[in-house]
Amino acid sequence: MIATVDDLEQIAGDDNADVGALRGWRRELFGDAALALKHGRLALAIEKGRVVRVDRD
């Protein structure tokens, strides 16, 4: 498991939450993208029926 519902709730309220999703391999795989999405630096879109990542600078 990468992130629990509790992790997501804590991340929503605090960029520095003390949760597994913001440490180690979980942060690399998910946490940095979650924070970017939260702050509008990343968007998700549907392209040809698939969810794609849209980086916004």
SSE layout and pairings?
Layout: H1 5-13, H2 24-38, E1 42-47, E2 50-55
Antiparallel strand pairs: 1-2
Question: How would you briefly describe this protein structure?
Answer:
With 57 residues, the protein is α+β, with helices and mostly antiparallel strands. 42% of the residues lie in helices and 21% in strands.
Provide an overview of this structure.
The protein has 2 helices and 2 strands, in the order ααββ. With 57 residues, it is an alpha+beta fold. It has one domain. Strands 1-2 form a two-stranded antiparallel ribbon. The termini are far apart.
Please supply descriptive tags for the structure shown above:
alpha+beta, single chain, 2 helices, two-stranded antiparallel sheet, 57 residues, globular
